[in-house]
Amino acid sequence: MKTVSIIGGGNLGNAIANGLVNSHIIQPKQLIVTRRKVELLKHLSKQGAQIHSDNVKAAKEADIIILCVKPYNIEGILTEIKGELKGKLLISTVSGVTLKQMHDWIGEEVSIIRSMPNTAAEVEESLTCLSGDVSEAEFSIAEQLFQAIGKTIRIQESLMEAATVLGACGIAYVLRFMRAMVQGGIQIGFDAQTATEIVNQTVLGAAKLLDDTNSHPEREIDKVTTPKGCTIAGLNEMEHNGFSSALIKGITKSFDEI
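The structure assignment produced for this chain is given below.
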């Protein structure tokens, strides 16, 4: 694997950096991460990665550049580094910014892939959606990078905003659900630590059950909902209070805001 620069070592950029180092897909010395507050990246420096705040230098010294910046900063940063991008692969994680917009800023000769990972990259369990009009070899490089921190799916660019909501924002939805489960567990008698342990493993098990068996959620729900049982009673009470509807409305609201 070639040298990788992550421009923008915030929450997502930091998670990707940690995932790449932890998975050993690249050596720490092959990783460059930039951030204004460089002191927040000391843990990467201790592992051997290069950290600084010079985006132009980071782009110049890398073969692959991963952009992890805010949407309102991307035009300025791309304009800043455009002179160092020829012959390199640019991977953007920035939501709402199209391939056409980026090409308009930096030219058509630069290979660009849009990606949408999530912060589970830090523990090598991200789901990353990829889209771009690039060569198969370049796509394979991007897949190799992001498969080191989880799974990848190729999608049409028109679905990237939907991928942002379902895959990236989705982490927050699931965590809020888990937090509510923990609160419920405390109310029925568990201490917070025990409730958290039970919820974490239950959610992990549910996800693995569906992933490994390729089963449908309703099929697995049917297995644990016995007639007049406590599971169906709880599920029905949640639905009476708009559980599924609230979740769907939240997803579509997030989509509308992109």
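Interim note for the steering committee: DSSP finds eleven helices and eight strands in the chain. The radius of gyration is 21 Å.
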